[in-house]
Design a protein that fits this description.
By secondary structure, the chain is α/β, with parallel strands linked by helices. The protein is 39% helix and 19% strand. The strands form two sheets. It has a six-stranded mixed beta sheet with strand order 6-10-5-9-7-8. Strand 7, helix 8 and strand 8 form a beta-alpha-beta unit. The protein is elongated, with a radius of gyration of 24 Å.
Length: 325
């Protein structure tokens, strides 16, 4: 007996045989607001998804969407059905979580998008410690592209730094980090522990692209102290900037978790650091997915990583709280 038929029997509804796959298709489109995103999430082609929606509407003789062009609008019947499917799939996830139900065969596949390679790797390690058979796909991008992966259903969960609040997603703080200064090993201050910000008057500053959170934090620090480096060079990846620093092209600012040991460089503390330059990283998933068994396990793994935060999370009580329940 299908999952849906079981729900209908509980509700005392047995006259109609509702196709569970078609309901899943409707629920995904209505939730994502896009046929293309829903098709990616379900791993089917868009024509197949459209056919399933049409079959559901034809079988029950009622339209569920007001047309097929964006923005997608639900008919009154579609709105009522969405309320029912939300309860149905949420309950199904809770049943799976309660019974520990896992599909037979290969383990699940977790798709992670992240703007922090360090914390992406740590999350994978924590997940595999409890689920060694899990498949993992990791995509590293800047914050905006990481969010795009989640919005477009190309990722199940994301690690995003200081994201904007979006009611479609649930958030859990993972870490708070602060800036450090990378200088070449041959730099005049390489043997010091602290980098005086006045030294920027003599150094070339290597910076990330405009959408980078690291660049935003760097610019916050510069504005706070009215600093204007004589020259900047823009490079669009962490790796490129690290190599440029090692080659003596200039200095740069990195978050502490992104400063692995390299004998060609020295890592110094900046003389001052305003709160605006701190960075808070969050684990993010869709609101509809947050109670699923898989997401609960992801959030449990993320909780185990909180002690690794460069600045303890409990010390940042004044920062925004966007907790996934």
């Amino acid at each position: 007996m299908s999952e849906l038929r079981g729900f209908l029997l509980i509700a005392g509804i047995t006259k109609l045989s509702v196709n569970h796959q078609h309901l899943r298709a409707f629920h995904s489109v209505a939730t994502d607001g896009s046929f293309s995103r829903a098709a990616r999430r379900l791993n089917i082609s868009q024509p197949t998804l459209s056919q399933q929606i049409k079959a559901l509407e034809k079988r029950h003789g009622t339209p569920l969407f007001e047309g097929r062009r964006r923005p997608l609008l639900l008919t009154p019947t579609g709105s009522e059905l969405l309320a029912l499917t939300q309860r149905m799939f949420a309950t199904a996830d809770e049943i799976d979580n309660l019974l520990g139900n896992q599909p037979s065969g290969d383990g699940p596949v977790l798709r992670i998008a992240a703007d922090s390679p360090t914390y992406a790797a740590r999350l994978v390690q924590a997940m595999l410690q409890t689920e060694p058979d899990m498949g993992v796909i990791v995509q590293i991008e800047n914050s905006q592209k990481t969010l795009d992966h989640l919005i477009e259903a190309r990722a199940d969960v994301a690690i995003i730094s200081d994201p904007q609040i979006d009611p479609r997603f649930a958030y859990r703080p993972l870490f708070v980090d602060y800036l450090k200064v990378l200088v070449p090993a041959s730099h005049r201050l390489a043997r010091e522990q602290v980098y005086p910000l006045s030294a920027l008057a003599e150094d070339c500053l290597l910076i990330r692209e405009a959408t980078s959170k690291t660049r935003g934090a760097t610019e916050s620090l510069l504005r706070a102290h009215d600093l204007h480096p004589p020259r900047t060079i823009e490079l669009h990846s962490r790796e490129a900037i690290r190599e440029a620093v090692a080659l003596g092209l200039g200095i740069s600012l990195f978050f502490s978790a992104e400063c692995p040991f390299d004998s060609r460089m020295a890592v110094l503390e900046p003389e001052f650091q305003p709160d605006a330059s701190l960075l808070t990283g969050y684990v993010v998933c869709g609101v509809e997915q947050r109670r699923s068994g898989l997401m609960r396990r992801v959030f449990n793994a993320a909780t185990s990583l909180e002690p690794l935060s460069p600045i303890p999370l409990e010390l940042m009580g004044g920062r925004p709280a966007r907790i996934a329940s």
